[in-house]
Specification:
Blueprint: E1 21-30, E2 33-43, E3 48-52, H1 59-66, E4 74-79, E5 82-83, H2 87-96, E6 97-100, H3 114-124, H4 132-142, H5 159-171, E7 177-181, H6 189-206, E8 209-213, H7 217-223, E9 226-231, E10 234-240, H8 241-246, H9 251-258
Parallel strand pairs: 3-8, 3-9, 6-7, 7-8
Antiparallel strand pairs: 1-2, 1-4, 4-5, 9-10
Helix pairs in contact: 3-4, 3-5, 4-5, 5-6
This protein binds adenosine-5'-triphosphate and magnesium ion.
Length: 276
């Protein structure tokens, strides 16, 4: 019968979905300064978790620690239920996670062609091989760079096009998770929406999960399923995007939201000083 629970139902037999990424107790110190203090984070497959917080709260440090660019002083990361430790799991994990940075000028080596930029992760993991050039072509096509010469150098391209190249690079090893650290905030306002739409489109097509760091409340509303609010290295509030933006529980979150007059994207930055 519909809705009836069989008498012999054993709840332990129902598998709980394993999160794509689960980080527990992540702690990072720079000298005597604690940048992250026992941060927990959970990202399900295909979902977007945003990290918000004022400047210096530890957002980028969290991103860098999670993808292995910095070493945590304490804490564990599980990916698809497996602990990320030891050389082999770390290597597999790096293939499964892409990263898009804020500044598409700084994060591309100007001496490489855009094809070489996109191929970087493929080469790093020994995946370039015979089909590499075609794979790079497909990746560029998938980010709206159809017909663009992969042997061209980055200086010919605009900020938005460069960020597309960075997104193609992040997708090269077909990751399940992409960490985006303010991927639109260095771009012209008109281009920001295009890049955001591209990221949403790629998420739908590829079932990607995003860890999305942003200052922009509209971006939080548009793309996040869940939001974690970071204050001096501690998560002070976590909830659905809807709950956090409409009914924040923590004073700090309320202040972040209050500091955001919805006039222009620059002024919409979370943590920006309120206008007089
Ligand atoms: N390599 C480093 N060496 C020393 N201190 C660092 C280093 N990286 C970050 N910090 C410090 O850790 C804290 C968190 O920095 P982080 O860059 O993660 O902040 P953020 O939330 O990303 O800020 P923003 O919004 O300005 O990008 C800051 O106090 C910063 O000065
Ligand atoms: Mg940062």
């Amino acid at each position: 019968m519909n809705g009836a629970v069989p008498a012999a139902c054993d709840v332990r037999a129902v598998p709980t979905p394993v999160p794509l990424l689960e980080a527990t107790g992540i702690t990072k110190r720079f000298g005597r300064h604690t940048a992250l203090d026992a941060v927990d984070l959970r990202i399900e497959q295909g979902r977007t978790v945003s990290i918000v917080g004022e400047s210096g709260s530890g957002k980028s440090t969290l991103a860098r620690v999670l993808i292995g660019l910095e070493r945590a002083d304490a804490g564990t990361v599980h990916f698809q239920g497996e602990p990320v430790r030891g050389r082999r799991t770390r290597q597999r994990f790096r293939r499964s996670v892409g990263m898009v940075f804020q500044d598409p000028y700084e994060s591309i080596d100007p001496r490489l062609t855009i094809g070489e930029v996109v191929a970087e992760p493929l080469r790093a993991h020994g995946l370039y091989g015979d089909g590499g050039r075609e794979r790079v072509r497909d990746l560029l096509d998938s980010v709206g760079m159809e017909g663009v010469d992969q042997d061209a150098y980055p200086h010919r391209f605009s900020g938005g096009q460069r960020q597309r190249v960075c997104i193609a690079r992040a997708l090269a090893t077909d990751p399940g998770l992409v960490v985006c650290d303010e991927p639109t905030s260095a771009l012209d306002v008109s281009v920001q929406a295009q890049i955001l739409n591209l990221l949403l489109d790629l998420q739908r097509r590829r079932g990607l999960a995003y860890l999305f760091i942003t200052h922009d409340l509209d971006v939080v509303r548009r793309i996040s399923d869940e939001v974690s609010v970071l204050l001096r290295g501690t998560v002070v509030e976590h909830g659905s995007a809807e709950q956090i933006t409409r009914d924040p529980r923590h004073d700090y979150t309320r202040r972040l939201l209050d500091a955001v007059p919805a006039a222009s994207p620059r002024e919409r930055r979370i943590g920006a000083a309120p206008r007089p």
